[in-house]
Amino acid sequence: MVDPMELLRSNLLRVRIPEPTNRIYKQECCLSFDSPRSEGGLFIDMNTFLAFGKDSVAWNYEKTGNPVYLHIKQTKKVVPEDRPLKKPTLLAIGVDGGFDNNEPEYEETHNIVILPDYVTLPFPSVELPEKVRLAVDAILMAEGAERKEQVAAWIADKKQRSAYAMNLQQIDNGVIVPPSGWKCTKCDKRDNLWLNLTDGTILCGRKNWDGTGGNNHAIEHYKETGYPLAVKLGTVTADLEAADVFSYPEDEGVLDPLLAEHLSHFGIDFSSLQKTEMTTAERELDQNTNFDWDRIQESGQEVEPIFGPGYTGLVNLGNSCYMAATMQVVFSTLSFHSRYYTNQSLKKAFEMAPADPTVDLNMQLTKLAHGLLSGKYSIPALEKDDPANAASTTASTKQEGVPPRMFKAVIAASHPEFSTMRQQDALEFFLHFVDQVERANAGKPELDPARSFKFGIEDRILCSSGKVTYNRRLDYILSLIIPLHEATNKEELEAFHKFKAEKISEGKEVFSNEIVRPRVPLEACLANFSAPEEIHDFYSTALKAKTTAIKTAGLTSFPDYLVLHMRKFVMEEGWVPKKLDVYIDVPDIIDISHMRSLGHQLGEELLPDGVPGGEVESNMPVPNEDIVSQLVSMGFNHLHCQKAAIKTSNAGVEEAMNWLLSHMDDPDIDFPISQEAQGAEAFLSSVDQSKVDTLISFGFTEEIARKALKASGSDIEKATDWIFNNPEPSVSSDMDATTSNTASDPTRAELPDGGGRYRLIGIVSHIGTSTQCGHYVAHIFKDGRWVIFNDDKVGASVNPPKDMGYLYFFERLNS
Question: Of 238 and 20, which is predicted with more confidence?
């Protein structure tokens, strides 16, 4: 029998004393949601300072060979029933001298454990080697990495007043900023836009490490001009302190005490908004918000708590309900359930993970899936803490839920907004999430569960010449405008408006139970998406002139799961944000078969979009000089502008600029137009074959690999980004005039597809006046009944708010 102390001494080289910069995990297992309060306690690897539960510590030993662990176990203290209540001396809760908050107290014990035989030595002990004693003391005294990240997120929200705000110089250049329809002045970005407060220029934000975000145009503008402050468009509401103002010289988010004045310089006037802040309409909105709160959360209803596999709540980490509601619905889908739970064990994910599993998305998704779906953590909170008193618990006992800290840290690493403690838009989070999952599964489409949400959209544009063109794109959500004029209760609405006018004239309020909201059928929203739409100033390559065209939209494929986004948030004149006060009548079963795009039909003549290579000299397309001159005035090269106009069939300045910005690094961008057609094929064949093979090994086709390398100057990393940002690279680059021949479109062929009948399985509802505030709740159809997931509260839904959803999740029905 080996002496335990000798065994420890023989493994001292495997023990490290943590440095101040080391991240130490001691509150939660990296692979599960076990904690020091779990039955087996928590084991901290004394070499890597990662924490493991009793079921996974052996896996870490097998993978790393690290044998020495600090074991931490917390046990709830027994409180005598006759203990006298302390008399408070401070008006506070949960502090010495304050009111007792009835939180249980825990006793913590520590041991040194040596694997693989779990040889145990008590701590503290003077007999332990000094190195071990110093290491354990440092671990216990250090603030846990989990706590550090949480505190950092809160501190990040505390902004300081900018030193540049009080004396900011603003140029009187006549710029007036509209309340919507913004676009970066240097590229086609329509999100992540920043308004420079000196000259009123609207530019996109920084590019993230993974290629998402903006194109750095806002910060480049600062470097060129020195104009210090910018405000993020979309965050500007009546609550000006909540607006995102960034100071480039100070390199951080700041407060601008004169923001209202600075915005008014560009026509954004908040004085009228603030004066009418409590108008009748807004009082109604307040009342409706309270009504929404009760209805969506099913307050006042006898909601029966549910426990077991698939019924685990998520702890709110501080305005993280947008993430909780979305992830509950996502993991109710078969694709994510199978990928990260049924077909992937925690051990398998850990074996594939890098040295630090806390930063691996695959590992943390698997951890979250097992936490939510296994049922291990879905037990009544009191029963979990004190089995002896389990019989005394009542039916209203709620579960503790699991805290998705590590998952949030990983998914937010490439998106700074989601790393804060501020409320976020559930739609933005869902799109960011599926994008990250797709990237994590790049080259392995058969494993990518995000594909189950992906589908193709095709726009058919009919020119007045009678010829057509088709544009395609891929998406994960179908965003629907709500046509209020299609309300089915118009008579009731008309009567209510008369009633409201009478009440106002009498100086009386309209109560929430008296308000009548428009009721719009979901079918009307879907029909509006497919309805013909006029496009003015469409440049026809057949007529060689601008004309009016008719656009209709359809789906080229039907995904396994269809996500519908209801556009309830709009910006009115005067920059007044408004949430549409409307009910959507959503049936349990929908059929969108009629929305399938028919593609290029027999007898349809396509708009001309180019000429064969041998006819380049004689039939050279002529660039529209108006487009070229406008692009040149923006500072672009004249030849490049001519090419952009030709490549986009003279469709317009915006289309040409989009092409130009995405092709500025093309190796043949400076070739004369007459040589381009002859040179293109030669260049494609001259791409480094080893780099082509590398991209093929990622799962891309040779044709796509060559085009990506061509477009990115043979840089593999940029080529990968190009493929992700151009989801249909195998189609002709003249996207304004592509045919709809599906046989030549491998991207579409790889998408899931099937019939058009769907069943409603999930609803994400929003309570509040803006997506940046309020609360999100999920309702999911599970095991033949509707279930409410309200953060850590899970129960049988009595009255699911099907008509109040923000995001609707439908599952395709197999015929």
Answer: 20
